[in-house]
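Duplicate of #3305? Posting structure anyway:
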């Protein structure tokens, strides 16, 4: 495996020169210089006309490392930015560019999918959703889209994990869709996707829709390896532009969906899409290039480099995760949601380098301010329904920490020292 050079990685983020220690990757991930430059360049060129290419007989054009057919006269550069974004997202998740549906956010794309699934979701059908997910994400199906019955998978309130065994009872022959998240963005818990999808496959022909947004910044993702039929990802949460995508396992799945616009009758991703800014789309390719560059080098196929890079990143950040949990949990007054206490005794060690914690007897705003005064940027945890059920109100609020590719052990040690001064 390629060695991970964190010092070199830090040099890819010009924003780190301001002196702050950023531990808020879950809320406001830092944007790499390559990404911001890509967006700036795309906005400048989006409305420019593509220069005609002079090709020999039997040749096809090649632009920006991606293959294009000869462009019609008057084609704008912005169309190329959008096409490049599709290819980059396909590389990110191991899918195909023609199966990528773009949109401004995942909630918008989920709403579009719910509408388009009218042929599948009828009154005698069911969908299985997860209370681990943010309400904004499952809202599209929570009302019982097209009359389908809604069934709920519930997380363990002691650990914040989503037990897979319940899907053996929730899923049956009437189930048409199972939607869930691959990980929790604030708790760092990871869903046993393979086991869940095995239950789904054993009991139904339902589609599985998996939000990989929290997982993708830390681990390599392959849609075929997960077994999912559709994966959703919010690029902004990876340090990219405000664009999201649904990636289908097979473009042939579009045939089973209604179109959202009468002028889009072909069985393609266009049936579901909401237009995105070509200027923003121009930042997606640089984002995936950046992730591939972290430890994958700059030569060879991007998908191969990306896989190697993300494996190295996972290995590096997993070591930091162990330190983060070990050092904070060693402080007697610190309570880590899903980890501390008897109810969390059986918690899995498979977690992301993220956690939500409280210091007993100290209000969360006080913790947050003390950290900020010492140059540490974290966030006050939003009171989501799940976290409220897990007791954040009784703890007088909590603070969330999430690591990024540029964080170091020194960052974790500094965090621990400041929290210890409160505990």
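Output from current build:
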């Amino acid at each position: 495996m390629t060695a991970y050079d964190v010092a070199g990685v830090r040099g890819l983020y010009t924003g780190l020169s301001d002196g702050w220690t950023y531990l808020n990757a879950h809320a406001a991930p830092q944007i790499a210089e390559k990404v911001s430059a890509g967006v700036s360049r795309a906005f400048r060129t989006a409305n420019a006309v593509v220069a005609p290419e002079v090709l020999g007989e039997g040749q096809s054009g090649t632009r920006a490392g991606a293959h294009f057919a000869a462009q019609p006269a008057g084609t704008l550069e912005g169309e190329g930015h959008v096409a490049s974004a599709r290819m980059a997202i396909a590389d990110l998740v191991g899918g195909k560019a023609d199966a990528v549906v773009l949109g401004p956010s995942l909630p918008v794309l989920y709403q579009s999918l719910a509408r388009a699934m009218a042929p599948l979701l009828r009154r005698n059908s069911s969908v299985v959703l997860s209370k681990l997910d943010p309400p904004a994400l499952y809202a599209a199906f929570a009302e019982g889209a097209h009359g389908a019955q809604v069934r709920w998978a519930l997380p363990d309130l002691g650990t914040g994990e989503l037990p897979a065994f319940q899907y053996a009872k929730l899923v049956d022959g009437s189930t048409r869709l199972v939607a869930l998240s691959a990980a929790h963005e604030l708790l760092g818990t990871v869903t046993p996707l393979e086991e869940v999808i095995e239950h789904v496959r054993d009991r139904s022909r339902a589609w599985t829709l998996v939000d990989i947004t929290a997982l993708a910044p830390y681990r390599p993702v392959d849609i075929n390896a997960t077994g999912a039929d559709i994966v959703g990802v919010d690029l902004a949460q990876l340090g990219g532009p405000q664009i999201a995508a649904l990636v289908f396992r097979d473009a042939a799945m579009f045939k089973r969906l209604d179109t959202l616009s009468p002028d889009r009758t072909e069985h393609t991703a266009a049936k579901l899409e909401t237009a995105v800014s070509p200027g923003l789309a121009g930042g997606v390719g640089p984002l995936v290039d950046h992730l591939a560059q972290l430890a994958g080098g700059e030569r060879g196929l991007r998908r191969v480099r990306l896989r190697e890079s993300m494996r190295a990143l996972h290995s590096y950040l997993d070591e930091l995760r162990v330190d983060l949990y070990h050092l904070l949990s060693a402080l007697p007054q610190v309570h880590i949601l899903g980890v501390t206490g008897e109810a969390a005794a059986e918690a899995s060690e498979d977690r992301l380098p993220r956690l939500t914690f409280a210091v007993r007897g100290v209000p969360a705003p006080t913790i947050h301010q003390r950290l900020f005064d010492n140059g540490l940027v974290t966030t006050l945890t939003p009171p989501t329904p799940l976290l409220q059920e897990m007791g954040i109100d009784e703890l007088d609020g909590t603070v969330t920490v999430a690591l990024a590719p540029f964080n170091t052990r020194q960052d974790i040690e500094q965090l621990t020292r400041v929290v210890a001064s409160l505990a």
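Confirmed duplicate; merging threads. Residues 360 and 390 are 15 Å apart (CA to CA). The chain has two domains: 62-286, 312-422.
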